[in-house]
């Protein structure tokens, strides 16, 4: 016979419940104790089951009762622990949400949201001030440290950080993120250690790179030493060096406090060529949406699309100016370009001052009329298609970018190879249709537009004086419904009047007939 579940085991269980019954399982140390408790209880259960097999019915009943109590205590212990864990998680989540809301409210509305306002007690701590000098604290220091590192050591995350910064700058806003990441892996930082380093480039030097002012300023100095312009943070200078190696037309200087990034022309052109290979099918679909090209043979349009290149422009960049050599044919894909036309408008008035004597006064006003070219507009073809007639070798107009834009282009030689004389006549007809061909037509067009604007102003002014803009919409609807009811009532009364008039006429006619026969 096996030994019964005796007093010794009962005392051990009682002692374990007393020691571990009120444990709190929040920390790792207490979790270790809870595991020990659960292991002991499970082992006790197994021993008890093995003993239970050879017990009398009364002993089995007592043992089952003790085991049920043990199970109940264990479940209560687990339930209390779970409740405490849930409450702890809720408290932690609420604290995190509160901290996130507090941090969000402390964000200062500065460019790019790079700066935060921290509590005063935190900023006064020395360890916090030391941490502020670390690159992980300030995104500016992080970008500078990335650009200081060697290009082949930059990972994808670091390139993305630089790309997101470039995306906020003019000239780079329309570039795809993949191209910006590629540029982010090629930007370099200019170390300013000596006085000679403060001169970024000199007048007459060969242009090989563009400078991005990450922080600080750059002075533009002419060949005779005059200060022409000052560029500030988040601006770029030396843009033309990314396209040609023409000599510098000014000297650029900076200060020791500035942070200057450099982009080489070779790197930029390589990134552009990679972009062109990817984007050229999309350009073809874009060109096919221009209705003017529907009248051309498909193989000509396809060949033109195969030779297309692109150019990114920032605000106020000049596409070409009057006097430049005729080089390319352009198609506006994104953004807005503008041509400013200066027109002198004359207005005359006269009044009598005597017998057959009139005094006349003429007022001349100079107006600058901007002609805008948006997406799908064609530019730069007039001098090409009229070369045989006018022999124009240089540009006759100036085109600037009104905002960040992207234009497609092909060289002049390819344009003349693809489009023959008949095709070029279509381009001349298009230009005649869209643009005034003489100064008189231009003045009449400007005057008609001015008259149209005056009429629009008079309509708006009349609407304002009539009080339409100051009357709420619900009052207008209420008055409209009221007058509609009045109109319906008037129509009903008119109908009733006509019916009664017909009845009266009929009665009169009947009386007249009766009087005749009497």
Descriptive notes:
One of its GO terms (molecular function) is protein kinase A catalytic subunit binding. One of its GO terms (cellular component) is cytosol. This is Cyclic nucleotide-binding domain-containing protein. It comes from Paramecium primaurelia. Residues 171-289, 292-337 form the Cyclic nucleotide-binding domain. This protein has 16 helices and 16 strands. It folds into 4 domains: 7-102; 139-268, Jelly Rolls; 309-435, Jelly Rolls; 471-518. Helix content is 51%, strand content 19%. The longest helix has 49 residues, at 57-105. The protein has helices at 7-20, 28-52, 57-105, 120-123, 126-132, 139-148, 156-166, 177-184, 265-288, 298-306, 382-385, 387-390, 412-418, 421-434, 439-465, 473-517; strands at residues 188-189, 199-201, 209-215, 218-221, 227-231, 235-237, 251-254, 259-264, 309-313, 318-320, 328-334, 337-354, 357-373, 378-379, 399-401, 405-411. The protein has 518 residues and is of the alpha+beta class. The strands form 4 sheets. It has a 4-stranded antiparallel β-sheet with strand order 1-8-3-6. Strands 2-7-4-5 form a 4-stranded antiparallel β-sheet, with no helix packed on it. It has a 4-stranded antiparallel β-sheet with strand order 9-16-11-14. It is extended, with a radius of gyration of 43 Å. Helix 9 packs antiparallel against helix 10 (298-306). The model is unreliable at 1-5, 22-30 and 95-114 (pLDDT under 50).
């Amino acid at each position: 016979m096996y030994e019964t579940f005796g007093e010794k085991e009962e005392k051990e269980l009682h002692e374990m419940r007393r020691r571990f019954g009120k444990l709190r399982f929040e920390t790792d140390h207490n979790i270790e104790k809870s595991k020990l408790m659960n292991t002991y209880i499970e082992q006790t259960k197994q021993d008890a089951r093995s003993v239970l097999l050879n017990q009398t019915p009364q002993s089995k009943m007592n043992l089952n009762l003790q085991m049920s109590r043990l199970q109940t205590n264990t479940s209560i212990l687990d339930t209390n622990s779970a409740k405490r864990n849930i409450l702890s998680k809720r408290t932690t989540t609420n604290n995190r949400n509160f901290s996130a809301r507090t941090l969000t409210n402390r964000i200062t509305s500065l460019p790019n949201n790079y700066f935060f306002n921290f509590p005063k007690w935190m900023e006064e701590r020395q360890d916090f001030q030391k941490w502020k000098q670390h690159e992980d604290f300030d995104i500016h220091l992080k970008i500078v440290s990335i650009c200081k590192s060697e290009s082949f050591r930059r990972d994808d995350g670091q390139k993305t950080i630089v790309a997101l910064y470039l995306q906020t700058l003019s000239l780079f806003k329309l570039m795809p993120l993949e191209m910006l990441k590629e540029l982010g892996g090629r930007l370099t930082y200019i170390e300013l250690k000596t006085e000679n380093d403060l001169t970024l480039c000199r007048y007459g030097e060969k242009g090989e790179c563009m400078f991005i002012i990450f922080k600080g300023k750059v002075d533009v100095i002419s060949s005779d030493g005059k200060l022409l312009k000052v560029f500030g943070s988040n601006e770029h200078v030396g843009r033309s060096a990314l396209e040609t190696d023409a000599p510098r037309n000014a000297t650029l200087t900076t200060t020791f406090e500035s942070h200057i990034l450099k982009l080489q022309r070779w790197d930029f052109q390589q990134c552009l060529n990679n972009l062109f290979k990817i984007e050229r099918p999309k350009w073809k679909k874009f060109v096919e949406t221009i209705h003017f090209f529907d009248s051309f043979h498909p193989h000509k349009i396809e060949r033109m699309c195969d030779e297309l290149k692109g150019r990114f422009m920032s605000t106020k960049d000049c596409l070409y100016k009057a006097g430049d050599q005729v080089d390319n044919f352009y198609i506006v894909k994104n953004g807005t370009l503008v041509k400013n036309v200066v027109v002198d408008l004359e207005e005359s008035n006269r009044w009598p001052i005597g017998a057959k004597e009139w005094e006349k006064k003429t007022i001349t006003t100079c107006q600058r009329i901007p002609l805008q070219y948006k997406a799908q507009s064609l530019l730069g073809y007039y001098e090409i298609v009229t070369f045989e007639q006018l022999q124009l070798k240089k540009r006759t107009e100036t085109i600037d970018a009104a905002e960040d834009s992207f234009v497609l282009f092909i060289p002049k030689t390819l344009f003349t190879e693809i489009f023959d004389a008949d095709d070029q006549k279509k381009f001349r007809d298009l230009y005649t249709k869209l643009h005034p061909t003489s100064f008189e037509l231009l003045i009449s067009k400007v005057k008609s537009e001015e008259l149209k604007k005056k009429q629009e102003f008079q309509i708006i002014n009349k609407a304002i004086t009539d009080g339409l803009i100051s009357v709420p919409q619900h009052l207008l609807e209420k008055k409209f419904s009221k007058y509609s009811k009045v109109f319906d009532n008037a129509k009903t009364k008119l109908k009733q009047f006509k019916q009664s008039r017909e009845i009266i006429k009929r009665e009169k006619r009947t009386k007249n007939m009766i009087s005749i026969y009497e």
